Amino acid sequence: MPTWIIVAVLDIALIVHAAKTGRFMPWGFVILFLPGIGALAYVVVELLPEWLGSHKARQARQQFAGAIDPTGRYRQLHDDLEIVDTIANRTALAEECLTLGKYDEALGQYDAILAKPLGEEPGFMLGKARAEYGLGDAGAAIATLDELKRRWPAYQSADGRLLYATALEMAGRNDEALANYADVGRYYPGAEPRVRQAQLLQRLGRQSEARAIAEDVVRTLTRAPAHVRKSQRQWLASAQKLARS
């Protein structure tokens, strides 16, 4: 039997399987338009994880699915919210909107969550500030974070403090931004605040201060374990560039 017939039969069988198991979108089209290759991808990403049940296999399936259909999770979360309007469903959708850059929709979701009787939580207000910052509204993000601090003075979030510093910088409040970058840089789990501090100093013409911070970041990261250097490679590269300037 010719190979192309075997491939065609296999493709048809897998398309039918994808349709019966609720995976036709997007797998039906992947298999149809990529004969052989699409079928192989479907087996590796969808079927093997089911057969083997390994965590890494399931993770690979999720990553591949996200690559070929980046809004698939968004659509599913949207459908879940329409079926059951809960804070958990709204939060999941709001976070996905932030990931996809749908900041206006994320802001609407967080406003709706905060208006609910059980929705007054600092994490949701932080999410609102992230959406406002994503929309370029630094003033609103700063106001939201100030309100968060007023209402929950004991709440601690390194990401929130970094967001506050970047919002201050966006608003042109450079001295306050530098002070906040320096403060959060002492305990933030990564080099981002210190590199941002150095970048801002450089833009303000304070070259020697910027270079000193960048050189310290480079020394620290080059001595760190390999997995740390890998996770911080973006900020290490930026610090190396600043250190050479």
Notable characteristics:
single chain; 245 residues; 15 helices
Short structural summary:
Among the domains are: 66 residues, no CATH class; 64 residues. The protein has 15 helices and no strands.
Question: Topology of this structure?
Answer:
Elements: H1 3-20, H2 24-33, H3 37-52, H4 55-68, H5 72-83, H6 87-100, H7 103-114, H8 122-134, H9 138-151, H10 158-170, H11 174-185, H12 192-203, H13 207-222, H14 226-231, H15 233-244
Give structural notes:
The protein is mostly helical. Among the domains are: 3-68, no CATH class; 71-134. Helices cover 79% and strands 0% of the residues. The chain is built from 15 helices and no strands. The chain has helices at 3-20, 24-33, 37-52, 55-68, 72-83, 87-100, 103-114, 122-134, 138-151, 158-170, 174-185, 192-203, 207-222, 226-231, 233-244. Helix 12 (192-203) runs parallel beside helix 15. It starts with a helix and ends with a helix.
Strand content: under 5%
- Rounded mean pLDDT is 85
Tally of DSSP helical segments: 15
What string gives the helices and strands in order? Answer: HHHHHHHHHHHHHHH
| Stretches with pLDDT under 50, minimum 5 residues | 52-56
Roughly how many Å apart are the termini? 66 Å
Principal-axes geometry comes out as flat
